[in-house]
Structures are given as structure tokens and as C-alpha cells.
């Protein structure tokens, strides 16, 4: 041997009980619902005002993820079934995204978490409106600055709500 001596300290031999995960899954769920509302507000209210887009076009694009491209042809008019499907898809994806981001946010300070959320929203824009257009080609039509803004707002708002509602492991 080379003369290296390995010592063990007695205090390291004891097993500690597992600590609870740092993520607050309830806060992540609520953050996803809130972020989903912010996204829909930008898409359904702000986009028509800012760029004159139909508020029902995003509803049909989102519903088409589940129902297929047959729901896409113009006119982009109100359809209650499509709205229910779109809301279900939007909020499900929003909660999945925020639960995936919760481990990052839980380890960050509030301002950092909002910055990470904003960045995550921009990444989601690239993934959803560029990478996934091979599967959902109709999303190419949504490659606009308002959609980019909606995704960034989703990420930042979700992170803010997560940090506001988050309970640390000691509080749970």
C-alpha cells in the first residue's frame, strides 16, 4: 500500500432519518393553475387587443392536441366543447410543467426563482412552438411575440406563486 490511512469518524456511522423532499407539491400545483390562467389571459385577452388575433384560435390549437387537426379550420369561433378540452389540456400541462420546475424553484431565492421561471417559459416556447411542431404542425402559426410573452409570463408568474405559497420542509 502507499501508506494512505482511511479514518472513519464515529458520528458518520449513524443513519439519519430521511428528510422530506424540499419541493412543495401543493404549491407547485397551485402555481401551475395560476400560471395557466396568466397564459390564457395573454392569449385570449391581450392578443386580440395587441395584435387583433381571434381569442378562439389558441383554444382550437390547444384542443387539437387531444382532438386532432379537424377542429382547426376557420372560422375560429366559440365552441364550448373545444373550450372545455382546451382548458383541461392547458391546466394539466401547466401543472406538469410547474411540478417539473419545483425542484429548481425550491432551492432558489424568490427573485432567482422568478428569473428561472421566466427562462423556463422561454424554453417552453421553443419546445412547444418549434420542437413539437413535428407532431403538432398547427403551432407554427403561433410563433409570435405575444405567444412568447404568454410563455414567459407563465413561467415568471408560476415561480412567483410557488415561492409565495411554498412551505419549507420544517413547516410541513
Can I get a quick summary?
With 172 residues, the protein is mostly helical. It contains five helices and no strands. The longest helix has 27 residues, at 25-51.
**Structural class label:** mainly alpha
What gyration radius follows from the Cα positions, in whole Å?
21 Å
Number of strands: 0
Query: Runs with pLDDT <50, length 5+?
Result: none
What's the shape? elongated
The helix fraction, in percent, is: 55-70%
Biggest β-sheet strands, sense, barrel: none
Strand content: under 5%
Distance between the termini: 50 Å
Count of distinct structural domains: 1
What integer is the average pLDDT? 90
Total number of helices: 5
The H-and-E topology, N to C, reads as HHHHH
How would you describe the overall organization of this protein?
- With 172 residues, this protein is an all-alpha fold.
- It has one domain.
- The chain has five helices and no strands.
- The longest helix is centred in the N-terminal third of the chain and has 27 residues.
- It is elongated, with a radius of gyration of 21 Å.
- The chain starts with 24 loop residues before the first helix and ends in a 7-residue tail after the last helix.
Keywords, please?
172 residues; mainly alpha; 5 helices
Topology:
Blueprint: H1 25-51, H2 56-67, H3 80-106, H4 110-129, H5 145-165
Helix pairs in contact: 1-3, 1-5, 2-3, 3-4, 3-5, 4-5
